[in-house]
């Protein structure tokens, strides 16, 4: 977990990071959007995300699916 504070701030927010995986047949960007849309259905207060890993599935020399593993940060409710 991460603590988000500003100097001199007595109220401290605590954030948590969850890893999620999402796939798309279109693109990495689409996989990211799908993953974040799904995460926002169950996680509140999402503040950021970063791409931990990207991969593709290939068939007959062509990309058939894009996958991203995202680290999603969200602030816990008080």
N- to C-terminal separation? 15 Å
Major β-sheet annotation? 4 strands, antiparallel
Overall pLDDT metric = 90
Summing up helix and strand content along with how strands pair, one would put the structural category as alpha+beta
Q: Radius of gyration over alpha carbons?
A: 16 Å
Percentage beta strand: over 45%
Word description of this protein:
With 78 residues, this protein is of the alpha+beta class. 19% of the residues lie in helices and 55% in strands. The protein is built from one helix and four strands; from the N terminus they run E-E-H-E-E. The protein has a four-stranded antiparallel beta sheet, with helices on one face. It is elongated and about 60 Å long. The model has no long low-confidence stretch (mean pLDDT 90).
What is the fold's blueprint, element by element?
Elements: E1 2-4, E2 13-24, H1 28-42, E3 46-59, E4 62-75
Antiparallel strand pairs: 1-2, 2-4, 3-4
Summarize the structure in short.
With 78 residues, the chain is an alpha+beta fold.
Keywords:
four-stranded antiparallel beta sheet, alpha+beta, 78 residues
């Amino acid at each position: 977990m991460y603590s988000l504070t500003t100097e001199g701030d007595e109220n401290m927010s605590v954030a948590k990071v969850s890893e999620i995986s999402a796939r798309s047949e279109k693109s990495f960007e689409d996989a990211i959007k799908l993953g974040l849309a799904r995460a926002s259905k169950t996680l509140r207060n999402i503040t950021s995300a970063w791409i931990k890993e990207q991969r593709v599935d290939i068939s007959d020399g062509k990309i058939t699916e894009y996958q991203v593993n995202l680290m999603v940060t969200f602030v816990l409710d008080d």
